[in-house]
Write a structure and sequence with these properties.
- This protein folds into two domains: 289 residues, Thiolase/Chalcone synthase (Peroxisomal Thiolase, Chain A, domain 1); 80 residues, Beta Barrel (OB fold (Dihydrolipoamide Acetyltransferase, E2P)), CATH 2.40.50.
- It is elongated and about 100 Å long.
- The relative contact order is 0.15.
- The chain has 509 residues and is an alpha+beta fold.
- The protein has 16 helices and 16 strands.
- A hairpin with a 2-residue loop joins strand 5 and strand 6.
- It is 33% helix and 20% strand.
- Helix 8 packs across helix 11.
- It binds coenzyme A.
- The site of coenzyme A (COA) has 18 residues, from helix 5 and helix 7.
Protein backbone atom coordinates (compact mmCIF):
# COMPACT_ATOMS: atom_id res chain seq x y z
CA UNK A 1 0.00 0.00 0.00
CA UNK A 2 1.21 3.49 -0.83
CA UNK A 3 1.45 6.07 1.95
CA UNK A 4 -1.34 8.65 1.64
CA UNK A 5 -0.54 12.31 2.30
CA UNK A 6 -2.77 15.32 2.71
CA UNK A 7 -1.92 18.24 0.43
CA UNK A 8 -4.29 21.25 0.36
CA UNK A 9 -7.13 21.65 2.85
CA UNK A 10 -9.98 24.16 2.97
CA UNK A 11 -13.32 25.00 4.46
CA UNK A 12 -16.18 27.49 4.17
CA UNK A 13 -17.20 29.48 7.21
CA UNK A 14 -19.79 27.39 9.04
CA UNK A 15 -23.18 28.86 10.00
CA UNK A 16 -26.10 30.25 8.03
CA UNK A 17 -25.19 30.72 4.39
CA UNK A 18 -27.04 32.17 1.41
CA UNK A 19 -25.03 29.93 -0.95
CA UNK A 20 -26.45 26.83 -2.63
CA UNK A 21 -25.13 23.40 -1.61
CA UNK A 22 -23.11 23.23 -4.84
CA UNK A 23 -21.79 26.74 -4.13
CA UNK A 24 -20.59 25.65 -0.68
CA UNK A 25 -18.82 22.59 -2.15
CA UNK A 26 -17.13 24.75 -4.81
CA UNK A 27 -15.93 27.33 -2.25
CA UNK A 28 -14.40 24.59 -0.07
CA UNK A 29 -12.75 22.93 -3.12
CA UNK A 30 -11.25 26.21 -4.35
CA UNK A 31 -9.97 26.92 -0.85
CA UNK A 32 -8.24 23.49 -0.66
CA UNK A 33 -6.71 23.87 -4.12
CA UNK A 34 -5.45 27.36 -3.26
CA UNK A 35 -2.92 25.92 -0.78
CA UNK A 36 -2.12 22.69 -2.59
CA UNK A 37 0.95 21.91 -4.70
CA UNK A 38 -1.36 19.51 -6.60
CA UNK A 39 -3.78 21.30 -8.91
CA UNK A 40 -5.20 18.40 -10.88
CA UNK A 41 -6.96 15.41 -9.36
CA UNK A 42 -7.97 12.00 -10.72
CA UNK A 43 -11.37 11.75 -8.98
CA UNK A 44 -13.83 13.33 -6.57
CA UNK A 45 -15.16 11.66 -3.40
CA UNK A 46 -18.14 13.49 -1.91
CA UNK A 47 -19.68 13.01 1.53
CA UNK A 48 -23.17 14.42 2.02
CA UNK A 49 -25.94 13.00 4.18
CA UNK A 50 -29.31 13.87 2.76
CA UNK A 51 -29.39 16.48 -0.04
CA UNK A 52 -32.55 14.81 -1.35
CA UNK A 53 -34.52 16.03 1.66
CA UNK A 54 -32.55 19.08 2.76
CA UNK A 55 -32.29 20.79 -0.64
CA UNK A 56 -34.19 18.56 -3.07
CA UNK A 57 -31.01 17.55 -4.93
CA UNK A 58 -29.98 14.05 -5.89
CA UNK A 59 -27.29 12.81 -8.30
CA UNK A 60 -25.11 15.14 -6.29
CA UNK A 61 -21.70 13.79 -7.39
CA UNK A 62 -22.40 14.58 -11.06
CA UNK A 63 -23.76 17.99 -10.05
CA UNK A 64 -20.60 18.86 -8.10
CA UNK A 65 -18.32 17.66 -10.92
CA UNK A 66 -20.23 19.94 -13.27
CA UNK A 67 -20.21 22.89 -10.86
CA UNK A 68 -16.46 22.51 -10.40
CA UNK A 69 -15.96 22.39 -14.17
CA UNK A 70 -14.36 18.94 -14.13
CA UNK A 71 -16.95 16.98 -16.15
CA UNK A 72 -15.33 13.74 -17.27
CA UNK A 73 -13.62 13.03 -13.93
CA UNK A 74 -14.95 10.09 -11.91
CA UNK A 75 -17.09 11.45 -9.06
CA UNK A 76 -18.81 9.40 -6.40
CA UNK A 77 -21.02 10.14 -3.39
CA UNK A 78 -20.47 8.27 -0.12
CA UNK A 79 -23.10 8.30 2.64
CA UNK A 80 -23.07 6.94 6.21
CA UNK A 81 -25.41 9.46 7.91
CA UNK A 82 -23.60 12.13 9.94
CA UNK A 83 -20.19 10.54 9.32
CA UNK A 84 -20.58 10.81 5.51
CA UNK A 85 -17.58 13.17 5.24
CA UNK A 86 -15.31 10.72 7.08
CA UNK A 87 -16.67 7.88 4.92
CA UNK A 88 -15.75 9.80 1.74
CA UNK A 89 -12.29 10.44 3.15
CA UNK A 90 -11.75 6.75 3.96
CA UNK A 91 -12.99 5.62 0.52
CA UNK A 92 -10.66 8.13 -1.13
CA UNK A 93 -7.78 6.97 1.09
CA UNK A 94 -8.34 3.38 -0.08
CA UNK A 95 -8.31 4.46 -3.74
CA UNK A 96 -4.99 6.30 -3.32
CA UNK A 97 -3.38 3.69 -1.04
CA UNK A 98 -4.20 0.94 -3.57
CA UNK A 99 -2.47 2.92 -6.29
CA UNK A 100 -5.63 3.19 -8.40
CA UNK A 101 -5.58 7.01 -8.20
CA UNK A 102 -2.67 9.34 -7.39
CA UNK A 103 -4.55 12.44 -6.31
CA UNK A 104 -8.18 12.79 -5.25
CA UNK A 105 -10.32 15.64 -4.01
CA UNK A 106 -12.41 14.78 -0.94
CA UNK A 107 -15.43 16.96 -0.17
CA UNK A 108 -17.99 16.98 2.63
CA UNK A 109 -20.94 19.34 2.92
CA UNK A 110 -24.55 19.95 3.86
CA UNK A 111 -27.07 22.77 3.67
CA UNK A 112 -29.64 22.72 6.48
CA UNK A 113 -30.49 26.14 7.94
CA UNK A 114 -33.17 27.19 5.42
CA UNK A 115 -35.64 24.68 6.89
CA UNK A 116 -37.56 24.96 10.17
CA UNK A 117 -36.06 23.24 13.23
CA UNK A 118 -38.95 20.74 13.32
CA UNK A 119 -38.44 19.80 9.65
CA UNK A 120 -34.65 19.49 10.10
CA UNK A 121 -35.21 17.43 13.25
CA UNK A 122 -37.52 15.05 11.34
CA UNK A 123 -34.98 14.64 8.49
CA UNK A 124 -32.12 14.04 10.93
CA UNK A 125 -34.26 11.46 12.75
CA UNK A 126 -34.55 9.38 9.57
CA UNK A 127 -31.12 7.95 10.38
CA UNK A 128 -32.47 6.22 13.48
CA UNK A 129 -34.47 3.02 13.78
CA UNK A 130 -38.03 3.20 12.39
CA UNK A 131 -39.82 1.86 15.47
CA UNK A 132 -37.96 4.35 17.68
CA UNK A 133 -38.70 7.25 15.33
CA UNK A 134 -42.41 6.40 15.05
CA UNK A 135 -42.83 7.39 18.71
CA UNK A 136 -41.28 10.80 18.03
CA UNK A 137 -37.67 9.97 18.96
CA UNK A 138 -35.04 12.31 17.55
CA UNK A 139 -31.25 12.41 17.68
CA UNK A 140 -31.24 14.71 20.75
CA UNK A 141 -33.88 12.48 22.42
CA UNK A 142 -31.82 9.29 22.00
CA UNK A 143 -28.64 11.12 23.05
CA UNK A 144 -30.53 12.28 26.16
CA UNK A 145 -31.61 8.72 26.99
CA UNK A 146 -28.00 7.53 26.69
CA UNK A 147 -26.97 10.39 28.99
CA UNK A 148 -29.52 9.37 31.63
CA UNK A 149 -28.19 5.79 31.52
CA UNK A 150 -24.63 7.08 31.83
CA UNK A 151 -25.63 9.08 34.91
CA UNK A 152 -27.23 6.03 36.47
CA UNK A 153 -24.39 3.66 35.60
CA UNK A 154 -21.70 5.88 37.09
CA UNK A 155 -23.89 6.92 40.05
CA UNK A 156 -23.72 10.61 39.27
CA UNK A 157 -26.22 12.96 40.87
CA UNK A 158 -28.25 15.12 38.48
CA UNK A 159 -26.27 18.19 39.46
CA UNK A 160 -22.90 16.42 39.09
CA UNK A 161 -23.79 15.27 35.57
CA UNK A 162 -25.00 18.76 34.64
CA UNK A 163 -21.74 20.27 35.87
CA UNK A 164 -19.75 17.85 33.71
CA UNK A 165 -21.81 18.59 30.61
CA UNK A 166 -21.54 22.31 31.32
CA UNK A 167 -17.71 21.99 31.41
CA UNK A 168 -17.69 20.36 27.95
CA UNK A 169 -19.97 23.08 26.54
CA UNK A 170 -17.92 25.90 28.09
CA UNK A 171 -14.63 24.41 26.89
CA UNK A 172 -15.82 23.91 23.31
CA UNK A 173 -17.46 27.34 23.07
CA UNK A 174 -14.24 28.90 24.41
CA UNK A 175 -12.15 26.98 21.87
CA UNK A 176 -14.57 27.97 19.09
CA UNK A 177 -14.20 31.64 20.00
CA UNK A 178 -10.66 31.42 18.51
CA UNK A 179 -11.84 29.73 15.31
CA UNK A 180 -12.68 32.08 12.42
CA UNK A 181 -14.63 29.27 10.68
CA UNK A 182 -16.89 28.54 13.67
CA UNK A 183 -20.64 29.18 13.72
CA UNK A 184 -20.48 30.38 17.34
CA UNK A 185 -17.52 32.52 18.36
CA UNK A 186 -18.69 33.51 21.84
CA UNK A 187 -17.52 31.85 25.03
CA UNK A 188 -20.41 30.91 27.34
CA UNK A 189 -20.65 31.17 31.13
CA UNK A 190 -21.94 28.66 33.63
CA UNK A 191 -24.87 31.01 34.21
CA UNK A 192 -25.84 31.11 30.52
CA UNK A 193 -25.49 27.31 30.30
CA UNK A 194 -27.90 26.75 33.19
CA UNK A 195 -30.27 29.44 31.86
CA UNK A 196 -30.50 27.76 28.45
CA UNK A 197 -33.64 25.84 27.55
CA UNK A 198 -34.03 22.09 27.71
CA UNK A 199 -34.04 20.44 24.29
CA UNK A 200 -34.48 16.91 25.66
CA UNK A 201 -33.91 16.37 29.40
CA UNK A 202 -31.18 16.40 30.67
CA UNK A 203 -29.75 18.01 27.50
CA UNK A 204 -30.01 21.76 27.03
CA UNK A 205 -29.45 24.03 24.06
CA UNK A 206 -25.74 24.29 24.91
CA UNK A 207 -25.40 20.50 24.99
CA UNK A 208 -26.42 20.19 21.34
CA UNK A 209 -24.56 20.92 18.14
CA UNK A 210 -26.46 23.43 16.01
CA UNK A 211 -28.07 23.22 12.59
CA UNK A 212 -25.48 24.47 10.10
CA UNK A 213 -24.56 25.10 6.46
CA UNK A 214 -21.00 24.44 5.36
CA UNK A 215 -18.48 22.40 3.41
CA UNK A 216 -14.88 21.23 3.80
CA UNK A 217 -12.34 19.82 1.35
CA UNK A 218 -8.92 18.23 1.12
CA UNK A 219 -6.61 16.68 -1.44
CA UNK A 220 -5.24 13.21 -0.74
CA UNK A 221 -2.17 12.20 -2.67
CA UNK A 222 0.50 9.54 -2.90
CA UNK A 223 3.08 12.32 -3.49
CA UNK A 224 5.17 12.86 -0.36
CA UNK A 225 4.08 15.84 1.71
CA UNK A 226 4.31 17.17 5.27
CA UNK A 227 1.21 15.43 6.71
CA UNK A 228 0.36 11.74 6.36
CA UNK A 229 -2.76 9.70 7.17
CA UNK A 230 -1.21 6.91 9.22
CA UNK A 231 -4.29 4.98 10.38
CA UNK A 232 -7.92 4.60 9.47
CA UNK A 233 -10.64 2.46 11.03
CA UNK A 234 -14.37 2.02 10.68
CA UNK A 235 -16.95 0.12 12.72
CA UNK A 236 -20.71 -0.27 12.72
CA UNK A 237 -23.22 -0.66 15.52
CA UNK A 238 -26.97 -1.30 15.79
CA UNK A 239 -29.33 1.36 14.48
CA UNK A 240 -31.70 1.10 17.40
CA UNK A 241 -31.13 1.65 21.11
CA UNK A 242 -32.99 -1.53 21.93
CA UNK A 243 -30.50 -3.78 20.09
CA UNK A 244 -27.47 -2.54 22.06
CA UNK A 245 -25.29 -4.42 24.50
CA UNK A 246 -24.35 -1.12 26.14
CA UNK A 247 -26.12 2.23 26.40
CA UNK A 248 -23.07 4.00 27.77
CA UNK A 249 -20.47 3.38 25.08
CA UNK A 250 -20.32 3.03 21.30
CA UNK A 251 -18.96 -0.27 20.11
CA UNK A 252 -18.58 1.17 16.59
CA UNK A 253 -16.07 3.73 17.89
CA UNK A 254 -14.14 1.06 19.81
CA UNK A 255 -13.85 -1.11 16.69
CA UNK A 256 -12.85 1.85 14.49
CA UNK A 257 -10.28 3.04 17.04
CA UNK A 258 -8.68 -0.39 17.49
CA UNK A 259 -8.24 -0.70 13.72
CA UNK A 260 -6.82 2.81 13.32
CA UNK A 261 -4.38 2.46 16.25
CA UNK A 262 -3.24 -0.89 14.91
CA UNK A 263 -2.66 0.45 11.40
CA UNK A 264 -0.77 3.49 12.71
CA UNK A 265 1.16 1.30 15.17
CA UNK A 266 0.25 3.70 17.90
CA UNK A 267 -1.84 3.94 21.06
CA UNK A 268 -4.08 6.48 22.83
CA UNK A 269 -1.04 7.58 24.92
CA UNK A 270 0.74 8.82 21.79
CA UNK A 271 -2.05 11.07 20.52
CA UNK A 272 -1.30 14.78 21.08
CA UNK A 273 -4.86 16.10 20.55
CA UNK A 274 -8.16 14.94 19.06
CA UNK A 275 -11.22 16.26 17.26
CA UNK A 276 -14.19 14.08 18.29
CA UNK A 277 -17.87 13.96 17.38
CA UNK A 278 -19.42 16.10 20.13
CA UNK A 279 -22.83 16.38 18.43
CA UNK A 280 -24.02 16.28 22.06
CA UNK A 281 -21.75 17.12 25.02
CA UNK A 282 -22.13 13.65 26.63
CA UNK A 283 -20.92 12.10 23.36
CA UNK A 284 -17.57 13.83 23.80
CA UNK A 285 -17.24 12.26 27.25
CA UNK A 286 -18.23 8.78 26.05
CA UNK A 287 -16.04 9.08 22.97
CA UNK A 288 -12.91 9.90 24.97
CA UNK A 289 -13.55 6.69 26.93
CA UNK A 290 -14.23 4.61 23.79
CA UNK A 291 -10.99 5.91 22.25
CA UNK A 292 -9.05 4.69 25.29
CA UNK A 293 -8.00 8.18 26.43
CA UNK A 294 -9.69 7.78 29.81
CA UNK A 295 -11.05 4.83 31.75
CA UNK A 296 -14.79 3.98 31.60
CA UNK A 297 -16.71 6.59 33.58
CA UNK A 298 -13.59 8.79 33.68
CA UNK A 299 -14.28 11.07 30.68
CA UNK A 300 -16.37 13.56 32.69
CA UNK A 301 -13.81 13.83 35.49
CA UNK A 302 -11.07 14.47 32.91
CA UNK A 303 -13.00 17.48 31.55
CA UNK A 304 -13.61 18.80 35.06
CA UNK A 305 -9.90 18.49 35.87
CA UNK A 306 -9.00 20.48 32.73
CA UNK A 307 -7.18 17.55 31.11
CA UNK A 308 -8.96 18.13 27.79
CA UNK A 309 -8.71 21.93 27.64
CA UNK A 310 -6.40 23.77 25.21
CA UNK A 311 -3.83 24.03 28.00
CA UNK A 312 -4.31 20.45 29.20
CA UNK A 313 -2.24 17.34 28.43
CA UNK A 314 -4.78 16.01 25.86
CA UNK A 315 -6.78 18.81 24.21
CA UNK A 316 -10.11 17.55 22.88
CA UNK A 317 -11.85 19.57 20.18
CA UNK A 318 -9.40 22.49 20.18
CA UNK A 319 -11.32 23.82 17.14
CA UNK A 320 -14.53 24.15 19.19
CA UNK A 321 -15.85 20.84 17.88
CA UNK A 322 -19.26 20.31 16.33
CA UNK A 323 -20.75 22.11 19.34
CA UNK A 324 -19.26 25.45 18.49
CA UNK A 325 -17.85 25.18 14.95
CA UNK A 326 -21.24 23.84 13.83
CA UNK A 327 -22.40 20.56 12.34
CA UNK A 328 -23.37 20.54 8.66
CA UNK A 329 -23.79 16.80 8.95
CA UNK A 330 -22.07 15.62 5.75
CA UNK A 331 -19.22 18.10 6.21
CA UNK A 332 -18.11 17.41 9.77
CA UNK A 333 -16.02 14.28 9.10
CA UNK A 334 -13.88 16.20 6.59
CA UNK A 335 -13.87 19.44 8.61
CA UNK A 336 -12.42 17.64 11.65
CA UNK A 337 -9.43 16.42 9.62
CA UNK A 338 -8.98 19.85 8.02
CA UNK A 339 -8.75 21.32 11.54
CA UNK A 340 -6.27 18.59 12.54
CA UNK A 341 -4.05 19.40 9.54
CA UNK A 342 -4.12 23.14 10.26
CA UNK A 343 -3.10 22.50 13.86
CA UNK A 344 -0.32 20.04 12.95
CA UNK A 345 1.03 22.66 10.54
CA UNK A 346 0.77 25.38 13.21
CA UNK A 347 -1.78 27.34 11.15
CA UNK A 348 -4.32 28.02 13.93
CA UNK A 349 -4.92 31.12 16.02
CA UNK A 350 -5.05 29.33 19.39
CA UNK A 351 -1.89 27.33 20.09
CA UNK A 352 -1.55 24.21 22.19
CA UNK A 353 0.84 24.13 25.12
CA UNK A 354 3.18 21.70 23.39
CA UNK A 355 3.97 21.06 19.75
CA UNK A 356 1.65 18.45 18.26
CA UNK A 357 2.92 15.71 15.94
CA UNK A 358 0.14 13.15 15.94
CA UNK A 359 -3.65 13.64 16.18
CA UNK A 360 -6.88 11.74 15.85
CA UNK A 361 -10.30 12.54 14.39
CA UNK A 362 -13.41 10.54 15.27
CA UNK A 363 -16.72 10.80 13.42
CA UNK A 364 -20.09 9.28 14.37
CA UNK A 365 -22.79 8.24 11.89
CA UNK A 366 -26.33 8.33 13.28
CA UNK A 367 -26.56 7.21 16.88
CA UNK A 368 -23.12 5.58 16.83
CA UNK A 369 -24.15 3.27 13.99
CA UNK A 370 -21.30 3.91 11.53
CA UNK A 371 -18.21 5.43 13.08
CA UNK A 372 -14.75 6.33 11.79
CA UNK A 373 -11.37 7.05 13.32
CA UNK A 374 -8.57 8.71 11.35
CA UNK A 375 -5.03 9.18 12.67
CA UNK A 376 -2.96 11.93 11.05
CA UNK A 377 0.72 12.70 11.71
CA UNK A 378 3.36 15.10 10.63
CA UNK A 379 5.66 13.29 8.22
CA UNK A 380 8.59 14.25 10.47
CA UNK A 381 6.92 12.74 13.58
CA UNK A 382 9.10 10.15 15.33
CA UNK A 383 7.99 6.63 14.43
CA UNK A 384 5.13 5.53 16.62
CA UNK A 385 5.89 2.74 19.01
CA UNK A 386 3.69 -0.36 19.12
CA UNK A 387 0.67 -0.03 21.40
CA UNK A 388 1.41 -0.42 25.08
CA UNK A 389 -2.22 -0.35 26.05
CA UNK A 390 -4.61 -1.65 23.48
CA UNK A 391 -8.03 -0.01 23.68
CA UNK A 392 -10.76 -2.39 24.74
CA UNK A 393 -12.12 -3.31 21.32
CA UNK A 394 -14.68 -6.05 21.14
CA UNK A 395 -14.37 -7.89 17.84
CA UNK A 396 -16.94 -7.04 15.20
CA UNK A 397 -19.69 -9.65 14.83
CA UNK A 398 -18.62 -11.79 11.89
CA UNK A 399 -21.64 -13.96 11.16
CA UNK A 400 -24.70 -12.19 9.81
CA UNK A 401 -27.78 -12.71 11.98
CA UNK A 402 -31.27 -11.38 11.41
CA UNK A 403 -32.34 -8.35 13.45
CA UNK A 404 -34.60 -9.24 16.35
CA UNK A 405 -38.17 -8.29 15.65
CA UNK A 406 -40.38 -6.47 18.11
CA UNK A 407 -42.33 -8.52 20.63
CA UNK A 408 -45.87 -9.16 19.49
CA UNK A 409 -48.14 -9.32 21.31
CA UNK A 410 -46.60 -7.32 24.16
CA UNK A 411 -47.24 -8.35 27.74
CA UNK A 412 -48.86 -5.04 28.72
CA UNK A 413 -46.40 -4.21 31.49
CA UNK A 414 -42.75 -3.28 31.78
CA UNK A 415 -40.08 -1.18 33.46
CA UNK A 416 -38.31 2.03 32.35
CA UNK A 417 -34.71 1.42 31.23
CA UNK A 418 -34.13 5.06 30.33
CA UNK A 419 -36.22 8.08 29.38
CA UNK A 420 -36.33 11.73 28.38
CA UNK A 421 -38.79 14.57 27.99
CA UNK A 422 -38.41 16.02 24.52
CA UNK A 423 -39.15 19.74 24.12
CA UNK A 424 -37.99 20.24 20.52
CA UNK A 425 -40.11 17.75 18.62
CA UNK A 426 -40.04 16.68 14.98
CA UNK A 427 -42.85 17.59 12.54
CA UNK A 428 -46.05 15.83 13.60
CA UNK A 429 -45.38 15.69 17.38
CA UNK A 430 -46.32 18.23 20.03
CA UNK A 431 -44.01 19.08 22.94
CA UNK A 432 -43.45 18.13 25.69
CA UNK A 433 -43.16 14.50 24.68
CA UNK A 434 -42.21 11.78 27.17
CA UNK A 435 -40.22 8.96 25.61
CA UNK A 436 -38.86 5.86 27.28
CA UNK A 437 -37.08 2.68 26.44
CA UNK A 438 -39.12 0.02 28.20
CA UNK A 439 -38.10 -3.50 29.13
CA UNK A 440 -41.35 -5.36 28.86
CA UNK A 441 -42.16 -8.32 31.09
CA UNK A 442 -40.89 -10.93 28.57
CA UNK A 443 -37.49 -9.23 28.53
CA UNK A 444 -37.46 -7.43 25.21
CA UNK A 445 -36.90 -3.70 24.81
CA UNK A 446 -39.13 -1.27 22.97
CA UNK A 447 -39.42 2.48 22.58
CA UNK A 448 -42.68 3.97 23.81
CA UNK A 449 -44.34 7.33 24.07
CA UNK A 450 -45.58 8.44 27.50
CA UNK A 451 -49.24 9.25 28.03
CA UNK A 452 -48.05 11.97 30.41
CA UNK A 453 -44.70 13.41 31.48
CA UNK A 454 -44.80 12.91 35.26
CA UNK A 455 -43.16 10.30 37.55
CA UNK A 456 -40.47 9.32 35.03
CA UNK A 457 -37.54 7.48 36.60
CA UNK A 458 -35.29 4.56 35.61
CA UNK A 459 -36.74 1.37 37.09
CA UNK A 460 -40.34 2.62 37.37
CA UNK A 461 -43.05 0.12 36.41
CA UNK A 462 -45.35 1.00 33.54
CA UNK A 463 -48.43 -0.20 31.70
CA UNK A 464 -47.94 -0.65 27.98
CA UNK A 465 -50.42 -0.60 25.15
CA UNK A 466 -50.10 -0.63 21.39
CA UNK A 467 -51.94 1.87 19.20
CA UNK A 468 -51.31 1.22 15.49
CA UNK A 469 -47.54 1.03 15.11
CA UNK A 470 -46.78 3.00 18.31
CA UNK A 471 -46.39 1.84 21.89
CA UNK A 472 -47.76 4.01 24.69
CA UNK A 473 -46.83 3.78 28.36
CA UNK A 474 -48.28 5.03 31.64
CA UNK A 475 -46.20 5.01 34.79
CA UNK A 476 -47.86 3.02 37.56
CA UNK A 477 -48.63 5.40 40.39
CA UNK A 478 -48.27 4.49 44.04
CA UNK A 479 -52.01 4.16 44.32
CA UNK A 480 -52.20 1.82 41.32
CA UNK A 481 -49.49 -0.36 42.84
CA UNK A 482 -51.37 -0.58 46.16
CA UNK A 483 -54.59 -1.41 44.30
CA UNK A 484 -52.77 -4.12 42.28
CA UNK A 485 -51.25 -5.61 45.42
CA UNK A 486 -54.68 -5.69 47.07
CA UNK A 487 -56.23 -7.31 44.04
CA UNK A 488 -53.50 -10.00 44.05
CA UNK A 489 -54.07 -10.60 47.76
CA UNK A 490 -57.79 -10.87 47.27
CA UNK A 491 -57.27 -13.37 44.47
CA UNK A 492 -55.37 -15.57 46.94
CA UNK A 493 -58.27 -15.64 49.46
CA UNK A 494 -60.68 -18.43 48.42
CA UNK A 495 -64.07 -17.06 47.42
CA UNK A 496 -66.85 -17.40 49.98
CA UNK A 497 -69.54 -19.83 48.84
CA UNK A 498 -72.84 -18.24 47.85
CA UNK A 499 -75.29 -17.67 50.72
CA UNK A 500 -77.94 -20.18 49.64
CA UNK A 501 -75.40 -23.05 49.40
CA UNK A 502 -73.94 -22.16 52.81
CA UNK A 503 -77.33 -22.37 54.52
CA UNK A 504 -78.16 -25.58 52.63
CA UNK A 505 -74.88 -27.06 53.94
CA UNK A 506 -75.72 -25.91 57.42
CA UNK A 507 -79.08 -27.69 57.26
CA UNK A 508 -77.59 -30.92 55.86
CA UNK A 509 -77.29 -33.88 58.14
N1 LIG B 1 -25.87 25.81 20.55
C1 LIG B 1 -25.80 27.11 20.92
N2 LIG B 1 -26.63 28.06 20.47
C2 LIG B 1 -27.58 27.69 19.60
C3 LIG B 1 -27.71 26.35 19.17
C4 LIG B 1 -26.81 25.40 19.68
N3 LIG B 1 -26.91 24.13 19.32
N4 LIG B 1 -28.74 26.27 18.31
C5 LIG B 1 -29.23 27.51 18.19
N5 LIG B 1 -28.54 28.36 18.96
C6 LIG B 1 -28.79 29.78 19.18
C7 LIG B 1 -29.21 30.49 17.91
O1 LIG B 1 -28.11 31.09 17.28
C8 LIG B 1 -30.19 31.50 18.43
O2 LIG B 1 -29.47 32.58 18.98
P1 LIG B 1 -29.99 34.09 18.75
O3 LIG B 1 -31.35 34.13 19.42
O4 LIG B 1 -28.95 34.90 19.45
O5 LIG B 1 -30.04 34.26 17.29
C9 LIG B 1 -30.86 30.80 19.59
O6 LIG B 1 -29.91 29.83 20.05
C10 LIG B 1 -32.17 30.11 19.23
O7 LIG B 1 -31.95 29.40 18.04
P2 LIG B 1 -33.02 28.49 17.35
O8 LIG B 1 -32.54 28.18 15.98
O9 LIG B 1 -34.36 29.12 17.50
O10 LIG B 1 -32.98 27.19 18.24
P3 LIG B 1 -33.84 25.93 18.03
O11 LIG B 1 -34.53 25.60 19.32
O12 LIG B 1 -34.71 26.06 16.84
O13 LIG B 1 -32.74 24.80 17.73
C11 LIG B 1 -31.58 22.91 18.63
C12 LIG B 1 -31.84 24.44 18.71
C13 LIG B 1 -30.51 22.56 19.65
C14 LIG B 1 -32.85 22.15 18.91
C15 LIG B 1 -31.09 22.58 17.20
O14 LIG B 1 -29.92 23.28 16.96
C16 LIG B 1 -30.86 21.09 17.04
O15 LIG B 1 -31.78 20.35 16.76
N6 LIG B 1 -29.62 20.62 17.17
C17 LIG B 1 -29.29 19.20 17.05
C18 LIG B 1 -28.98 18.88 15.64
C19 LIG B 1 -28.70 17.40 15.46
O16 LIG B 1 -29.38 16.56 15.98
N7 LIG B 1 -27.68 17.09 14.65
C20 LIG B 1 -27.34 15.73 14.32
C21 LIG B 1 -26.45 15.14 15.32
S1 LIG B 1 -25.55 13.76 14.69
Amino acid sequence: MAAVYIAGVGMTKFGKSSQTLAGLFCEAAVSALSNSPIQEVDALYIGVMNPEEFTGDSNIASQIAESLGVIGLPAVRVETASSAGAAALHAAWQAVASGYYRHVLVLGGEKMTHLSTSATTRILAEVIDKQERQCGSTMPALAAMITERYRKRYRLSHSRLERMLCRVAMKNHKNGSHNPYAQFRQAITEKSYFASKFVSTPLRLYDCSPITDGAAAMILTSERGDVVVSGIGQGTGPLSLRERDSFTSFRATQIAAARAYQMAGTSPKEIDFAEVHDAFTPFEIICTEDLGFFPRGGGGHAVEEGKTSLEGPLPINPSGGLKSRGHPVGASGVAQVVEVVWRLRGDTEAKLKREAKRALAQSTGGLGANNFVTIVERADAPLATRPRISPSAPPARQRPSAKKSLPAPISGEGRIETFTILYVTPDGFLPPLALALIRERQGSLLMAQGEDISHLKIGREVYLRQVGDRYLFTVKSHLTKVREALRKLLRRIPPRPPKGKASAKKGAP
